[in-house]
Design brief:
- The chain has 255 residues and is an alpha/beta fold.
- It is built from six helices and six strands.
- It has a six-stranded mixed β-sheet with strand order 1-6-5-4-2-3.
- The longest helix is centred in the first third of the chain and has 36 residues, at 2-37.
- Residues 137-160 have low confidence and may be disordered.
C-alpha cells in the first residue's frame, strides 16, 4: 500500500509539472510570435491630405519656417526640416515678407498610441480632434489566455492567468506616435479672397457668429502628418529620434 501511495503521489507531481510546462510553453510561443513580428523598429509617416504646389524658378525657392510645439514633450524638429528643405535646393528666409513660401507646423501630440486612435487622428485631418490619443495605452500584447482552460482545469486556469500577466509584462508591441498639423502658404501675383467664419458661444443661450473677409496674395494648403514608431518593448528614448526624422522628411517633402 505504501508503494502504491508513493507511486500515486509521484505520478500526480509529474502531471502537475507537465501542466505547468505546457502552460508556460504555450504562453511563451505567443510571446515569441510577438517578439519576432515586431523585433525591428518600423517608422512611417502618413498625411491626411496631399498638397501640390506650383513649381517655381530658383529665385523663388525661399521658405519662411514657423514650427511650434503644443504637446507636453520637448522636441525640436525645425533643424531637421530646415536641413531637408535646403537639400532640395530651397533657401531659408528669416523675413516672412521676403519668402515665397510660408511653412508653419504645430506638434499636437507625442506619446504612446493605439492603432485605432492613430487612424482617427489621421482621418480627422488638419485641426481635427486628437482626444483619443491623450491617455492612450500601449499596443497589443500577444498571449493565449485560453491555454490554461484547455489543460489542467482549475490549476491551469489559475497558472494560465498568471503566466499571461508575466508574458504581457515582459513582451509587448509598443507604438509611439507624433501628430503634427501643417499649413503651407504660397505667395501669388493675383489677389486671393477668403472668408473666415466662426461660431462663438456666450453663456448657455447666446450664439455669436463672426465672419471676416480678407484679400491677400497667398494660397493656403493644410494637412496633418501622423508619424508612428513600433517595436517590441520600445521605449520613448529610442523612438523619439526616429520620429523626428520621419516627420521632418514628410513635412519637407511637401515642397
Amino acid at each position: 500500500m505504501g508503494n502504491v501511495r508513493k507511486l500515486n503521489v509521484e505520478t500526480g507531481t509529474w502531471i502537475i509539472m507537465l501542466v505547468f510546462l505546457l502552460i508556460f510553453t504555450l504562453s511563451g510561443c505567443a510571446a515569441m510570435t510577438t517578439a519576432i513580428e515586431h523585433r525591428n523598429l518600423e517608422v512611417e509617416s502618413k498625411m491626411s491630405d496631399t498638397i501640390f504646389i506650383d513649381p517655381v524658378g530658383p529665385e523663388l525657392k525661399t521658405v519662411f519656417l514657423q514650427i511650434k510645439n503644443t504637446s507636453d514633450k520637448d522636441i525640436d524638429i525645425e533643424n531637421i526640416i530646415s536641413s531637408e528643405i535646403i537639400s532640395k535646393g530651397y533657401r531659408i528666409e528669416s523675413d516672412p515678407d521676403k519668402a515665397h513660401y510660408l511653412l508653419q507646423a504645430n506638434v499636437l501630440f507625442i506619446g504612446k498610441a493605439k492603432p485605432a486612435d492613430l487612424q482617427q487622428a489621421l482621418a480627422g485631418g488638419y485641426g481635427g480632434l486628437v482626444g483619443g490619443l491623450l491617455g492612450a495605452g500601449i499596443g497589443h500584447s500577444a498571449s493565449d489566455s485560453s491555454s490554461g482552460y484547455l489543460i489542467g482545469g482549475g490549476i491551469g486556469a489559475l497558472t494560465g492567468g498568471l503566466t499571461e500577466r508575466i508574458t504581457d509584462a515582459l513582451v509587448k508591441s509598443v507604438t509611439y506616435s507624433m501628430v503634427t498639423d501643417v499649413q503651407v502658404s504660397e505667395r501669388t501675383k493675383t489677389t486671393v479672397e477668403q472668408e473666415i467664419g466662426s461660431d462663438l458661444s456666450q453663456g448657455s443661450q447666446t450664439k455669436i457668429k463672426q465672419v471676416m473677409k480678407t484679400k491677400e496674395n497667398f494660397k493656403r494648403f493644410r494637412t496633418r502628418v501622423v508619424s508612428k514608431a513600433n517595436k517590441v518593448n520600445l521605449d520613448f528614448e529610442e523612438a523619439l529620434p526616429e520620429l523626428r526624422v520621419s516627420v521632418g522628411k514628410a513635412i519637407a517633402g511637401i515642397l
